[in-house]
Amino acid sequence: QVQLVESGGGLVQAGGSLRLSCAASGRTFSTYAMGWFRQAPGKEREFVAAITRNYGNTYYADSVKGRFTISRDNAKNTVYVQMNSLKPEDTAVYYCAVVLWGGFYPPRTYSAYDTWGQGTQVTVSS
Question: pLDDT digits over 69-83, tens only?
Answer without folding.
Answer: 999 998 899 999 999
